[in-house]
Amino acid sequence: MVNKTSLQNSERARRFALHLPVYFRQPHSSTWLEGTTENISYTGVLLRSPSPLVPETALELRLQLAIDASLNHVSEIRCKGAVVRVEQRNAPETPIALAVAISDYRIVRRGVSGGNPLGISENTYPPPKKAGRRLQ
């Protein structure tokens, strides 16, 4: 017998516990904020943030996926979405968590020259992180 709870759980998108660097900003802002993902699904992302945002805040996100060993290519997902939930953490030094619903995304692979994605200034996008380096 299928009950409401088991139906809701079966419809929920599978989450992947990935701790990736993420940059995010409100549309048209020149300031990118840094965070780290806690988990990702095809419908959204839960990320740790030092900056609180309110639900329904529109965001642009950049999730860095991979850098090859020679640092010649960066792969990232660029997303648009909105904050749907804010989770306060118990310890004051622990960043809050933002649940962001993804409305649109694209995967981008770019060459890197001098630490910056080609054709994009540092003021527009932050430089990619080196492989193995994690955001705190």
Strand content: over 45%
Ends: how far apart?
45 Å
Fraction in helix: under 10%
Q: How many individual helices?
A: 1
Major sheet summary line? 6 strands, antiparallel, barrel
Q: Calculate Rg over CA atoms.
A: 16 Å
Weakly predicted, low-confidence segments = 1-9, 116-136
Strand pairing plus helix content: what structural class?
mainly beta
Arrangement of strands in the largest sheet: 1-2-3-6-5-4
| Outline | globular
Count the beta strands: 7
Q: What pattern of helices and strands is seen along the backbone?
A: HEEEEEEE
What's the overall average pLDDT, rounded?
75
Structural notes for this entry:
The protein has 136 residues and is mainly β. It has a domain at 29-117. The chain is 6% helix and 47% strand. It is built from one helix and seven strands. The protein has a six-stranded antiparallel barrel with strand order 1-2-3-6-5-4. Strand 4 (58-67) and strand 5 (73-87) form a beta hairpin. The protein is globular. The N and C termini lie far apart (45 Å).
